[in-house]
Amino acid sequence: xxxxxxxxxxxxxxxxxxxxxxxxxxxxxxxxxxxxxxxxxxxxxxxxxxxxxxxxxxxxxxxxxxxxxxxxxxxxxxxxxxxxxxxxxxxxxxxxxxxxxxxxxxxxxxxxxxxxxxxxxxxxxxxxxxxxxxxxxxxxxxxxxxxxxxxxxxxxxxxxxxxxxxxxxxxxxxxxxxxxxxxxxxxxxxxxxxxxxxxxxxxxxxxxxxxxxxxxxxxxxxxxxxxxxxxxxxxxxxxxxxxxxxxxxxxxxxxxxxxxxxxxxxxxxxxxxxxxxxxxxxxxxxxxxxxxxxxxxxxxxxxxxxxxxxxxxxxxxxxxxxxxxxxxxxxxxxxxxxxxxxxxxxxxxxxxxxxxxxxxxxxxxxxxxxxxxxxxxxxxxxxxxx
Length: 386
Known about the structure:
Layout: E1 11-12, E2 59-62, E3 66-71, E4 75-81, E5 94-99, E6 106-111, E7 116-120, E8 125-129, E9 134-139, E10 146-151, E11 155-160, E12 165-169, E13 173-174, E14 177-178, E15 190-191, E16 198-203, E17 207-212, E18 217-221, E19 236-241, E20 251-253, E21 256-260, E22 266-271, E23 283-289, E24 297-300, E25 304-309, E26 312-320, E27 328-336, E28 340-345, E29 349-354, E30 359-363, E31 377-382
Parallel strand pairs: 1-24
Antiparallel strand pairs: 2-3, 3-4, 4-5, 6-7, 7-8, 8-9, 10-11, 11-12, 12-15, 13-14, 16-17, 17-18, 18-19, 20-21, 21-22, 22-23, 24-25, 25-26, 26-27, 28-29, 29-30, 30-31
């Protein structure tokens, strides 16, 4: 396996909605209610003055059928399926973009199938949804002060300020067996691997990986489909090194793990259906994923992946036939979004953020993720925040 050049950023979508399992592209240091400088237009991002779009977004996270974003004032807005309280304390099942109350000074947001979470500037993690017993943000007291937050299907993990990986929620293994996602989870106890010197983490449905400060990558949990970097690794309760991999960014979701090169394609391993190679699960060893060549951001969902390329988002894999969503076609498709900076893929939908802080979504839109009611959207639709 070849070494990985310095990486840009990558994230992987999840069958169980863990598409927020990454460090966002936007700046995480805005203060005094501002969004900070995201490096795109050289200044502090304030309210978007475009007619009908009052907020500019710093970063976003798309899950199975809902999404959240950090908007002006370092607050969080969520939209989509609210049957599990993941959008917040609002009544509509398919909710429009809604500000999560009593949540400010947010620097990172992450969404999962059964929980939504935010990392505040003071290092505390706040989550909401039926799984934590409340639709209002609740502080997860078992987690230490953090500098990175990721959410799997129902597992919440952080990188602590002393470079440890600490998790709570659904375990990745049940004894020596692969755990199965459940609708309930306990957020009253913490667990994590015996590893230090962690600079970044990524978490899938039943496995997790850590990037250490020496640029090595270590994975643990369920080894089905080669998600730990080997088709024969089996399951591991403690981290094992991915042989020959030198990385500066990592990401993992469902049963797959990826790294993105700044000049070449992504290198991915695990469940091949997440790389858009087939309509069925096909375990793969580490290999190049050409869809991500020369991309500034990539997100891999359940059956298709999308890459941000300057003024376009290119998606490849088993693409839903839009707008009907009556079937899927293996291939590639481009969506024109000027100055796109970030892309996040769910199950049937995807969203992107442009350099001006606008958010655009498209897909089957069965839960209102495209922000325009229900019904498939074949072209990106600009999301209007309250």
